[in-house]
Structures are given as C-alpha cells and as structure tokens.
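ok so I'm stuck.
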Amino acid sequence: MPGGKWHRPFFTPYALYGTIDHMYGWPAYEAGNGFTMAQASMNICESVGYLGYLYIFWAYGKGQWTYTNGQNRSIGGGWGGLACLFGFSLSLVTFSKTALYDSQDSLALNEHFSGYHYIGHNASGPLFFLWILPNGFWIVLPAYMIFAFGTDILQGLAIAGADNRSKVAKRTMPREALFSQSTTPPKEE
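replied:
not stuck anymore, here's the structure
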C-alpha cells in the first residue's frame, strides 16, 4: 500500500492498480477483507510450484537452450512426466484463480457476482487498459499452457498404451509417432 515499508521502489506501480481495483487498495484493507492475503498465500504456493517446474527443467533436461530457438531442451522419462504434470496442474491453478477473481468481464466471476463492487467505479477506458488487458494475460497464457501440457500428457499416455487408432491419439500425436508404433500388441511370454 502507498506509504508502506516496501512500497518504494518495488510496488509503486500497484498504487495505480489499487485505485482501479479496490480489492487491492485501501477500501478492502480498511474493511478488513482477508481475500487479498488469502490470494497472496495461494500465489506463494503457486510460485514455489513453478520454481519446482523450472528446477526439473534445468536439472534434468537435455540439450541446449538458446534465445533464438528455445525448442532444443527437452525432458523425457519420469522426470519429463513429473515436469509435465507440474506444468499442467500449475497452469490450471493459475487459469482457475484468475477466472475466479480477475480478468475479462465474462470471466470475472467474483466481480460479476458481487455487482462489480470493487471495479464498478471505473470508466470503460481505464478499466480496459489498466484492468482487463493486463489481467487478460493471466487467462491467455495459462490457457495455452493447459493445452500444450495436456497435449503432451495425452501423447505420453497414447504412446505408453500403444494407441495409434483412437481419435485422441490421431489428434495429439506427431504423425511419425503414429506410423512408427506396432499395430499389434506385444506377445506375452
């Protein structure tokens, strides 16, 4: 909050945001609303999870990472599965939290069901540029991550189950993987 111990230099831009969304400003603080602290606690857990994902990616990934082509680093096996599960789960948490309490008008469930109590005082221009647009990032990127990690999970399960015929396998698996698998189950010894 403005005037607080850590406000300058770290949180100066949030003074403006607190005037746009009163959930993060003085009105909610003075009302004793605990939502912001509860949200901050969830954000810390979420951030620790993302750090765990990055640790797995860098510690167990193989290949080089370059700024021009970031596709060269990959993880396989059990660590790859764990990283994929972390990424999918955390992006689902980020998307769900944002849909609950932030983001675009159609997804701002908390604001919608409270009669736009915390953002209803804004004109449409500032609301769009200082609330909807920045918060939209936290819907679009996690939605893409859910799709990408979910596709990887489905590919892994289709490969593990030697499935190359189902609609899911045909839609999610790379073409070369579909044709490289045997169509007959392995013989039991």
